[in-house]
Automatic annotation (TrEMBL):
Residues 10-240 form the ABC transporter domain. One of its GO terms (molecular function) is ATP binding. Belongs to the ABC transporter superfamily. It comes from Mesorhizobium robiniae. Coiled coil: none annotated. InterPro entries: AAA+_ATPase, ABC_transporter-like_ATP-bd, P-loop_NTPase. SMART domains: AAA (SM00382). Keywords: ATP-binding, Nucleotide-binding. This is ABC transport system ATP-binding protein.
Amino acid sequence: MKAEAATDAVRLQGVEYRWNARDPFCLSIGEFEVSRGERLLLLGASGSGKSTLLSLLTGIALAQAGSLEVLGQRLDELSGSGRDRFRAEHFGIIFQMFNLLPYGVVIDNVLLPLSFAPERRARATAAGGTESEARRLLSALGLPADIGQQTAATLSVGQQQRVATARALIGSPEIIVADEPTSALDDDRQQDFLDLLFGQIDATKATLIMVSHDRRLARHFTRVVQLTDILATSKRESDKR
Ligand SMILES: Nc1ncnc2c1ncn2[C@@H]1O[C@H](COP(=O)(O)OP(=O)(O)OP(=O)(O)O)[C@@H](O)[C@H]1O
């Protein structure tokens, strides 16, 4: 479906999810909305369910109850392959472990999402060609000009993180999701990285949803939400007991 500009980026209501039926962990969200263009930081302790929530938002996991809409599209109305296409087209994802193809060269890693996302490919092509757009992003993220043909496995952690970020940004998806992308960096490099990321996001007006347990990042964002504050009331009460 066509994503309408008037809809929220993300809207959840009464969403429940367990990874498996016998697992005591259940993520249970009352209401949660993210407007388009927000830079949202979602804070929560380790194991509280932040990555699980990102898996639900991106359609990697499917909620067992409730309603979850992204850009006006209910994800449970899409088939598994439809959710995969929707994710590739509308989300740029920076994973906690980056998930680069280790034996692929940097340029191929950055271009990868375009194989599954015709609208993103068309935008990157219109911006001057897919390869030149990949190189522009790598350079804007502070990587040297000759890095494109290097294999991903030979990069430092900081370089891998920037390549993963270029891969998320290419073709200007509407929503950028980042799972603790700064956790491996010292304070100065965190600040550098966030400045570069925000600079690129400002240019495309994308929505940013970042999860972290590090509340010192809060000042960089337009809104900060504690995961415990969006849990369904019954779940919050049982956590207190
Ligand atoms: N792919 C998975 N399969 C099964 N269980 C999972 C999976 N991912 C997470 N879990 C479980 O879901 C619960 C919440 O984990 P999650 O990774 O969402 O928390 P988190 O807040 O992101 O933690 P961290 O900050 O340590 O990354 C944990 O009990 C975890 O073991």
